[in-house]
Amino acid sequence: MSLSSDRPKRKASLHTVLIISSVVQIIIPVGLTGYFSWRNSQQAVNELAYQSMEKVSNCIEQNLHEYFVIPELVNQSTLNAIELGYLNLENLQPWEKYLWRQVQLAPQLSFIGIGNENKEYRAARKFSDNSLGINQSDRSTNFNLYSYHSDRNGNRTTLKSITKNFDPRKRPWYQKAVAEKKLTWSDVYLSLLESSLSISTVQPIYEPNTKQLKGTLTVTLRLDGLNDFLSKLKVRQSGQVFIIDRDGTLIATSSTEKPYRINNNQKELIAAIDSSNILTQATSKHLLSHFQDLQQIVRPQQLEFSLEGKQQLVRVIPLKNNQALNWLVVVVVPEADFIQSSDATNRTTILLCLIALLVSIIVAILIARWIAQPILQLNAETKKIAKGDLAGTVIVNRTDEIGELANSFNRMSEQLQTSFDALQTLNEELLYSESRLTQFLEALPIGIVVYNRDGTLAYYNQTTKHLLALDEPIPENPNEQFALTSKIYVAGTDRLYPTKKLPCFRALQGESVTLDDLEIHREGKIVALEVRATPIFDPQEQIAYAIVAFADITKRKNVQKILSNYYNALETEVAQRTTELKQANQQLQLLANLDGLTQVANRRRFDEYLNQEWKRLVREKQPLSLVMFDIDYFKFYNDCYGHQAGDECLKQIAGALSRALKRPADLAARYGGEEFAAILPNTELLGAVAVARAIQEEVKQLKIPHDRSEVSEYVTLSMGVTSVIPTQDLSVESLVAAADEALYESKRRGRDRFLIYYPA
């Protein structure tokens, strides 16, 4: 095939277009780049400066966020421990080592404290030399504040100082937490004990149910680290960074200046406009003159001003968090730090643009010549195919993409002819498949209805007519009257089924559903149906059809109803038997744990409960007390009055013991014979002594005569009292042994008394 008559004209045209388009695409951006590079060099300097300053300010903002998030996390962690019950505001003794460890979590933490509404207070402090201390104020200190040094294990060592009449509720941090009623920050202030700025975050603690205030947490930060961090930032050769609050008070600076002064041995904060650093002072004055009120700065600002004839670039970033911190970060850099590098960059850019332009023109000419020829040939052959000539071929002796394109073109031409021949055969097979599909659907024992995407009826089989007992065709559209026309009801009612909830409607909305709560009412008969509807999507994910399949489940519904009634009756009988068994078990458990004569806990229940509470209080590190006693000269009592009177005496003593125990957790038990015991969980020694005295008083009021007693004319008791905080190193047997030993020592010392022993 010859294309020589067309090739010269088309080749020249495509060749020229490729060259011109390539060269123009390069000349325009290269020229604009050089022009704007020269004209806007000053603007580029400013943009580079502000980008550099923005990078520095972002770094500062991120660091400050991390700096201040730690105290808030410490407060939240402590609040979580309180809410989970690990820490108790009614007992601050376990708080000491917890606070002592918390204050060491980060180097900037200097103080962590807790105060409650009972005037009790605990705190841990870390000084700038990393030495640690513990503060305490409660009833044991007569509400004076005792400050101690601590060793490396968190134990108190020497007493450092005593502050009289200390009430944490009157402290500013406590009152601010109460006023704000949420996590908040104090103003920056000068530390009384060290030469540094500090700031505190406080958190009120409320009773979850009553919302009553229980106490307040406080965490204090030492701000020395901010100065160190700012001084390490590289802000060009002579730039500076400083932080101020909205009143213009200097918080931190990258210069060597301290953010406070000492006048007449008194430390005081300084305003940034009074700074001894010239750049800090001038920048602060410009901000005040420009904004009048620093509260107006609500988003990052970029400013310029002149200092001693030199232009200064300034970026101001508001720094806020949700807990009332509201500062400004100021970055100031002399413009001269950027100009030198900008001039050198402009010269290099222009030179590179010229070299790129020359090289690109040469390459464009060569590439255009190489591409144009085979493309023109392919274009001519494609036009022939469009006119119906499918026998054309293209010969291109190349192995690149254009050569592959020519080979693909030749194969496409051959396949296109083959496809036309196969198309007629495919159409015939498709008609046959549609006929077979219709036969299958008609043979199914379930009803099938198909709707088009616009809701019009496309098909329904003969089973549909049989199940629905239709005398007329199904409505062409499932409109608002569809349920009424088809007599479709909600199962078990006389209410028409909501049209919008019918399966066909939901399938046309793209939803696949299966329902069994539909009924058809026809000729006095009710037919229960199970219906499944599903959408059919086309390749573009659009709904093409909705298919609804349904079957008669009337028999299944009847069977289910019979089974349901049977299961309900069976469940009722099982529940009744279960309740009777539970009541019997409870009665047996009660009998197994009670002494038959005195109706208090028996020895078995005593051992079980004592071991249970011992294990619990080992975990909680709370005290456990035990009182054991027996009746003085009880053998003589039985010999004198008889065993029936002795049994009645034991019952009265057991009743006196039960009346003396006031808390539900306390357990009265008969230990054996005439010996009784009282288990007192979460009770210190003083509480146990009070219980022992109460038991003695109850017995004295009974005034049970005892003529054979050698200590009194009435029945008396000999008692042993002991108390301990259970640990893994002690055993429950040691507690019983201590109470028993104290009991028998009371007898040896004359009876009618109690003695106190501690477990060995």
Short description:
The chain has 760 residues and is of the alpha+beta class. Strands 1, 2, 3, 4, 5, 6, 7, 8 and 9 form a 9-stranded antiparallel sheet that branches. Strand 14 and strand 15 (310-320) form a beta hairpin.
The N- and C-terminal alpha carbons lie at a distance of 117 Å
Question: Which architecture of the largest domain per CATH?
Answer: 2-Layer Sandwich
Overall 3D shape:
flat
Rg, Cα atoms, Å: 47 Å
How many helix segments? 17
- Supply the number of structural domains: 6
CATH fold title of the largest domain: Alpha-Beta Plaits
Strand content: 15-25%
Largest sheet features: 9 strands, antiparallel
Please write the CATH class name of the largest domain.
Alpha Beta
Low-confidence stretches: 1-11
Give me the CATH superfamily of the largest domain.
Answer: Reverse transcriptase/Diguanylate cyclase domain
Topology:
Layout: H1 7-39, H2 41-83, H3 95-102, E1 109-116, E2 121-126, E3 132-137, E4 145-150, E5 156-163, H4 172-180, E6 184-185, E7 189-190, E8 197-206, E9 213-222, H5 224-232, E10 240-245, E11 250-253, E12 260-263, E13 266-269, H6 278-291, E14 301-307, E15 310-320, E16 326-334, H7 336-386, H8 401-443, E17 447-452, E18 457-460, H9 462-468, H10 482-486, E19 488-490, H11 503-508, E20 513-522, E21 525-537, E22 543-552, H12 554-593, H13 603-620, E23 624-631, H14 634-641, H15 643-660, E24 667-672, E25 675-681, H16 685-702, E26 717-724, H17 732-748, E27 753-756
Parallel strand pairs: 26-27
Antiparallel strand pairs: 1-2, 1-9, 2-3, 3-4, 4-5, 6-8, 7-8, 8-9, 10-11, 10-16, 12-13, 14-15, 15-16, 17-18, 17-22, 19-20, 20-21, 21-22, 23-25, 23-26, 24-25
Helix pairs in contact: 1-7, 2-7, 7-8, 14-15, 15-16
